[in-house]
Design a protein that fits this description.
It comes from Brevibacillus borstelensis AK1. One of its GO terms (biological process) is spore germination. There is one protein chain. The chain has 504 residues and is of the alpha+beta class. The chain has helices at residues 16-26, 58-76, 84-94, 107-115, 162-172, 204-215, 225-232, 249-258, 278-281, 292-321, 329-338, 346-366, 369-389, 395-408, 414-434, 436-452, 481-484; strands spanning 33-39, 46-52, 101-104, 119-123, 129-132, 178-185, 191-198, 244-246, 261-265, 271-274, 454-455, 458-459. The chain has 3 domains: 16-132, no CATH class; 146-276, no CATH class; 288-459, no CATH class. β6 (178-185) and β7 (191-198) form a beta hairpin. α10 (292-321) packs parallel to α15.
């Protein structure tokens, strides 16, 4: 082969050998890259097909690509060399009735298509390449998301193939205004990222801000949606998640109808939704599938669970250590009796049990599912009972920690539960030093942080801040849908606020 004369330029040149050498150099002469040279009928012209072994549909490759080139080239290309490129475009457009065929003119485009599973065909005397869509279907079967299981709702979740995810959304939301914008992130491994929104509903300023933040990401490879989430969030030092992640298409559909933006990343089933507020992280799609009375009851139970998960251990430490007078007499005597013989202060008790529960929870997640469930249940029972019998902790502390752990499982969004679990330790330390005053101080600090926090320009504490009482009908309670689905949330500044004819 001749040395590549224009290695500094990404443009393909008429020399087949130069183009082939440059593309193979960009691919690193990897062993899984296959190139096959072909003669074009009785002519002296050559063609080379390049593809990645294992990523292409072999049957389609041999029957459509190689077969089409060998059978129809002479019919489609009979002109002299000056008209050769023009006729080759015609060949690319009409050579096959099956599959996607396109023409590209840059070597980096060829490399991207080859790594995506397509076949690149280079022709002699032509400064371009014909791309055949031969990528093998690699999407897995659609299943219900394990991290967001519902009692009532669609049994379908996103998959790792971004094109399949866009198709899922298109099938669910048959709106001609549903818009997908594609861009690529990553210096070395180019990952396709899709910005999804409803044109005419979503505020264009929000879409532009999402696009701006994504285009600023400069890393080798956004392996998972968590990489993108870390780069586009407003405050990376906040314990609260400022981007909502989900595997459920129905949750994304509901967010789009509210005027929010979804981000789909190739290679992961988790999509991102922006902006988000903390009350939204406490809501589940199932809240809107059931009747409003049981849904409202479940919402109130989640609010109670939030209180228990954040405050219960700290309140126990504060009351037992500093404010025994606030405990009813009989209960105080009972607590004192159970703590008789315990050698450690209350805060040491609480920290020991909370850390033990967190270790069991983490171990249960990392182990295989059958083993992990046994470790979580049996381990908690055995360690709790053994600690009580050994006199290390009191029985009431085991009850407090168990109730706290159960409450933290009631959150529909796992990232929100992690934030509460983290803040609980700060609450306990403050309670051990200052008692109830420490709890109040930490709560004020958390509240001031949440009030100042924003997600893509939206107040994280909305609808509490700014206070819009009329939006509280979908906060602690979930009133009938006839009253909820009249207007879109004003906080997102949608172009079309009306959601039904009743709102006009």
């Amino acid at each position: 082969m001749k040395p590549y004369a224009k290695s500094h330029s990404p443009e393909l040149v008429p020399s087949l050998s130069d183009n082939l050498e440059h593309i193979l150099t960009l691919l690193g002469n990897s062993s899984d890259i296959v190139y096959r040279e072909m003669s074009l009928g009785e002519t002296e012209r050559k063609a080379v097909a390049i593809y990645a072994k294992g990523m292409v549909d072999q049957q389609f490759l041999y029957s459509q690509v190689f077969g089409v080139i060998s059978r129809r080239f002479l019919t489609e290309v009979e002109a002299s060399p000056p008209d050769y490129p023009q006729n080759l475009k015609h060949f690319a457009q009409h050579a096959s009735t099956f599959g996607d065929i396109s023409v590209v003119y840059k070597s980096d485009q060829c490399v991207s298509e080859i790594l995506a599973g397509n076949t690149c065909v280079l022709f002699d005397e032509y400064p371009g390449a014909v791309i055949f869509g031969t990528a093998k279907d690699k999407s897995r079967q659609q299943e219900e998301p394990a991290s967001e299981a519902l009692v009532r709702g669609p049994r379908i979740g996103f998959v790792e193939e971004v094109n399949e995810n866009t198709a899922i959304l298109r099938r669910r939301l048959k709106d001609p205004h549903l818009t997908f914008e594609s861009l690529f992130l990553g210096r070395r491994a180019r990952k396709e990222v899709i910005i999804c929104y409803l044109r005419g509903v979503t505020n264009p300023d929000l879409v532009n801000e999402v696009r701006r933040r994504l285009q600023k990401i400069d890393i080798d490879d956004p392996i998972e949606s968590g990489y993108v989430e870390n780069y586009i969030q407003d405050n990376p030092y906040s314990p609260f998640p400022q981007v909502q992640n989900t595997e459920r298409p129905d949750r994304v559909e509901g967010a789009l109808l509210e005027g929010r933006v979804a981000i789909l990343i190739d290679g992961t089933p988790f999509s991102l939704i922006v902006p988000v507020t903390f009350p939204m992280l406490m809501q589940s799609p199932e809240d809107y599938y059931d009747r409003w009375i049981p849904a409202s009851l479940i919402r109130m139970l989640r609010t109670l669970a939030l209180f228990f998960a954040l405050f219960l251990p700290a309140l126990y430490v504060a009351l037992v250590s500093y404010h025994q007078g606030l405990i009813p007499t009989k209960l105080a005597i009972s607590i004192a009796g159970t703590r008789e013989g315990v050698p450690f202060p209350t805060i040491v008790e609480a920290m020991f049990m909370e850390i033990t529960i967190e270790l069991l929870r983490e171990a249960g997640l990392r182990l295989p599912k059958p083993v992990g469930q046994a470790v979580g249940i049996v381990g908690g029972l055995v360690i709790g009972q053994s600690a009580v019998e050994a006199g290390i902790v009191s029985p009431i502390m085991v009850i407090v920690v168990a109730l706290t752990a159960i409450s933290s499982f009631a959150f529909p969004q796992y990232p929100a539960a992690i934030a509460i679990r983290l803040l609980r330790f700060g609450m306990m330390l403050a309670a051990s030093i200052f008692g109830l005053y420490g709890i109040i101080l930490v709560f004020v600090l958390i509240t001031s942080h949440v009030v100042r926090l924003k997600s893509f320009g939206i107040n994280y504490a909305a609808p509490y801040v700014p206070n819009r009482v009329y939006t509280w009908k979908d906060l602690f309670l979930r009133l009938p849908l006839q009253t909820l689905l009249k207007f879109r949330p004003a906080m997102f500044k949608p172009l079309d606020r009306n959601r039904s004819d009743q709102s006009k």
